[in-house]
Amino acid sequence: xxxxxxxxxxxxxxxxxxxxxxxxxxxxxxxxxxxxxxxxxxxxxxxxxxxxxxxxxxxxxxxxxxxxxxxxxxxxxxxxxxxxxxxxxxxxxxxxxxxxxxxxxxxxxxxxxxxxxxxxxxxxxxxxxxxxxxxxxxxxxxxxxxxxxxxxxxxxxxxxxxxxxxxxxxxxxxxxxxxxxxxxxxxxxxxxxxxxxxxxxxxxxxxxxxxxxxxxxxxxxxxxxxxxxxxxxxxxxxxxxxxxxxxxxxxxxxxxxxxxxxxxxxxxxxxxxxxxxxxxxxxxxxxxxxxxxxxxxxxxx
Amino acid sequence: xxxxxxxxxxxxxxxxxxxxxxxxxxxxxxxxxxxxxxxxxxxxxxxxxxxxxxxxxxxxxxxxxxxxxxxxxxxxxxxxxxxxxxxxxxxxxxxxxxxxxxxxxxxxxxxxxxxxxxxxxxxxxxxxxxxxxxxxxxxxxxxxxxxxxxxxxxxxxxxxxxxxxxxxxxxxxxxxxxxxxxxxxxxxxxxxxxxxxxxxxxxxxxxxxxxxxxxxxxxxxxxxxxxxxxxxxxxxxxxxxxxxxxxxxxxxxxxxxxxxxxxxxxxxxxxxxxxxxxxxxxxxxxxxxxxxxxxxxxxxxxxxxxxxxxxxxx
Lengths: 301, 314
What we know:
The complex is a heterodimer. Chain A is an alpha/beta fold. Chain A is globular, with a radius of gyration of 19 Å. Chain A has a four-stranded parallel sheet with strand order 2-1-3-4. A four-stranded parallel sheet of chain A has the order 6-5-7-8, sandwiched between helices. Chain A has helices spanning about 15-30, 50-70, 80-90, 95-105, 120-125, 130-140, 175-180, 205-220, 230-240, 240-250, 260-265, 285-290, and strands at about 1-5, 30-35, 75, 120, 145-150, 185, 225-230, 255-260. By secondary structure, chain B is an alpha+beta fold. Chain B folds into three domains: about 1-105, Beta-grasp domain (Ubiquitin-like (UB roll)); about 105-230, Orthogonal Bundle (Fumarate Reductase Iron-sulfur Protein, Chain B, domain 2); about 240-314, no CATH class. Helices cover about 40% and strands about 10% of the residues of chain B. Chain B has helices at about 30-40, 105-115, 135-140, 150-155, 160, 170-180, 185-195, 210, 220-230, 240-255, 260-265, 270-275, 280-285, 300-310, and strands at about 1-10, 20-25, 60-65, 70, 85-90, 100, 105. In chain B, the strands form two sheets. Chain B has a five-stranded mixed sheet. In chain B, strands 6-7 form a two-stranded antiparallel ribbon. In chain B, helix 7 crosses helix 9 and helix 10 packs across helix 14 (about 300-310). Chain B is globular and about 70 Å long. The interface between A and B is large, with 68 and 67 residues.
């Protein structure tokens, strides 16, 4: 189980706890990640507006790097996942365009062949037979009784033909991981919606209303925690939660975890090892629900 | 036997909508519309919905099935029953007021289509003969021109759920059809108007509209095309355009996004009110150690990315 890790920008910046917890979980499960340190930003769905060819070429460069390593490219961000797949699809569907892209890449010593590697999210890795087996064996702290609301991040779901998940209108992948960890998935309408973050700089009120609606929906559906596979969703749902609450005039106060943080808890890592102390919304309530950590793994590290 | 769980509402008789369960045996190959017609014609004539062509051309029978908008005539009912489920929930389209049962008031939808001035603007007198377009010129507006105004995109639009001021996917797709029409002479004016609040930059790119669109119109991609034209036309004095340009600049410089400069550059350096709004979340993140490193690191081999920018003239 060796993969090329496309970290994305936010896991190296405002949500470094995502990177921390990804590494911990990979270590815990014996997954080898080769960090793509020379891969550039996916463009976040906004650089195509300036130039589609530029965005697709920069992304094809990342695919070529993964191809050179002979490793599947794994994202830890729904936004990176969606944007990389859009570029891949566009290039793979048009030989002439691919030639154009490769013509630009050539001088840098890269060539994108296509069809050689998969572009998938960390959630897909966790759901491979081998990782699932290991995860089941290594859960030392089942998250029993933790009512967990998945928040998928819209870019990984739509357009559905580019999604790495089986049924993007009604996905089950995150919930399946929750169940392996012993948590109880909560169903709620907002789980496949947009968090609002893409327009936080353009229409703050609408953006935070979207975040607020999702948080309130999760709380009203009985969730103790929201778990997302997208650090941008995390920013709107966690970092901006106080503003979203003020706007909705509703106290949500619900912790928001990155997917690897939830898995890390089940593997026995402490909240601190998973970077949960850096969250804006306090995550102590989870410890109360879960009770003492039988693994107390931190003492061995 | 399948349960059709239909949201019923007659404002003359009920204060609130209610769910009605109808047990119905789906005939082989029947569309959702076929089933509703049979239910209406043989069981309950009061069930109201719009329909006409039965061939996904007229755009009348938009409604929500299992929570997502679709044309009832375009989906086989059995295909809505995967994973051994025995219930199909049917509701009116969203983001529009309900008139009765599955019939919604599309007044605002049409009003917004009108707002984008869906007709050719010309400065000079019309020519004597027709205005010719090359196949390449037509290709730019071909997808948008397939829109049948069914409202499915508008129904499920995530921004519209929270901001009624947003023009919405259908009107913006219609706008693209004129922004990029070789015969139109109002491009600059159009993209300036479309860059204002409620326009293109309020789209989250969540692609809900792409997913619901029954045609190749796929509004989100059309909205992105207008954005490109707006940047080309130099309409950049707004947060959306500044945000996109800041991203490009940052990747060109370091290969990755600079999260510290992005918010400031998006707001604009002289936008004091906008910048002040960033203070609470910034402070909050600073106290938790979440502020991205002040010294922004380049990716390895950033020179190759810069070379790509240079080679493509960016």
